[in-house]
Amino acid sequence: MRIDCKHVWQHISAYIDGEVDAALRAEIDQHLETCEICSAVLDSTRNVVVLVADNRVFELPAGFGRRLHDRLEKELETAGP
Ligand SMILES: [Zn+2]
Q1: For the segment 36-49, what is each residue's pLDDT rounded down to a tens digit?
Q2: Domain segments of the chain: what residues?
Q3: Against a cut of 0.70, is the pTM above it?
């Protein structure tokens, strides 16, 4: 099974939180190896999550995840085929 960028974006919050199953994780890993766009999205997402974790503000990741999700939803709407 091949997944596309939109699949990765939809699952990227769960992927970072380790909440995707092994099969999906493997697909995303494989996609990230070949896709610069999704690698950049993952990097920037991780940077913010790490920053939040370092500040020990544990309430923020959920809100951040929601904002990221909203933003990606918009991207998905405008970038649709
Ligand atoms: Zn991609």
Answers
A1: 989 988 888 877 76
A2: 5-78
A3: no
